[in-house]
Amino acid sequence: MKLFTTFSFLLLMLYFISCDTQPPDILQPVQKEGSVIITSDISGAKVYLNSVYKGVADLTLSLQPGEYSIYLVKDTLRSDTQTVNVESGKTYRLYFVLGKRSSVLLEDFANVSCDPCVESSLILNKLLSSRYANDKLIVIRYATNFPSPNDPFYLANSGMNDNRIGMYNVLFAPTTIVDGVEKPIATDSVSIIEAVDSRLSLHSSFLINNLSLNITSDSISVSGNLILPSSGYENDKLFIALIRKEVVYQTPPGSNGETVFRDVAFAFIPNNDGVPLTDLTVNNNSAAFEYKIVNTFTEPADNIAAVFFIQNIISREVYFVTKKE
Are 112 and 254 in contact (CB under 8 A)? Predict the structure, then answer.
């Protein structure tokens, strides 16, 4: 009887132990890898992820969620480092520039009754046709209302011209601004060349491509695609200037004798203030854009070009510029 009692007790203990199960662990969400697509302005560039070689661009990396630093190297060239915070299942596009920038923006402020503007214009035209041919230097000319308030280019769109004059606090003509930050002497070709060359040596983390310019009797529309860094563009804007490639007068419109004017701005699209990059719909570090304005101008379509540029509204620095004719 004692043996039976002991055996029964053991069975009872085993029953309670078997019922005392551990609760299952809480299931953690599965972290999917993210993708980082890496492209470059130079083929064959080596890709380094957190200083570890990963292959040659163009390249797609599959990465666990987390923050990564990436830079590219080709021969003696090295790109700026970009940081990307990869999230589960998302795709990112990073564009790297190793070589010199392909284009630099020069904004020229002039007046048809400004005598030194004649020399400045001759210098720019010569540089554009020789040293900086093939759009290495992209020029936008604005009109001031000084020394003469009757400059026809200023009167045609005073709001646009005043906007750019105010941005740089331009006080006299001619004034030359390179990439928003360099201010060479407008009548000194050496000074201009030094400013442009210094900017051409820099890198850019932006790219504007797939551009279109469509001009009808009713409207002017532009579209394109912007590749931008993962962050750090909160104060940057996209500007799109419409320019007349050449304007010829039979008689000088001002007192300085000029009759031929090139790359003259006549409007911005969609507005003079630019489009904050934070307003664009960004997917995978890429943003498509399309804008249209009513065509109230009498300019022939083949004499119109569009200049696209990214500018920081605090520092005034222009990071990227390109043109579509």
Answer: yes
Q: Is residue 29 over pLDDT 80?
A: no
Q: Provide the residue type at 62 as one letter.
A: S
How many residues would you count in the chain?
325
Query: Do 230 and 138 lie in a common domain?
Result: yes
Whole-Å CA distances, 59 to 66, 109, 206: 19, 43, 18
What is the extent of the structural domain holding 54?
34-96
Examine the domain organization and report whether 89 and 231 are in the same domain.
Answer: no
- Judge if 131 and 275 occupy the same domain: yes
For β-strands 137-143 and 91-96, DSSP reports them as unpaired
Give 190-247 as a DSSP string.
HHHHHHHHHHHTS--S-EEEEEEEEE-SSEEEEEEEEE--SS--TTEEEEEEEEEEEE
pTM score: 0.79
**CATH code of the domain containing 77:** 2.60.40.1120
Tell whether 90 and 135 lie within a shared domain.
Answer: no
Predicted pLDDT of residue 100: 72
Distances (CA, A) of 133 to 97, 130, 139, 255, 261: 21, 5, 12, 30, 18
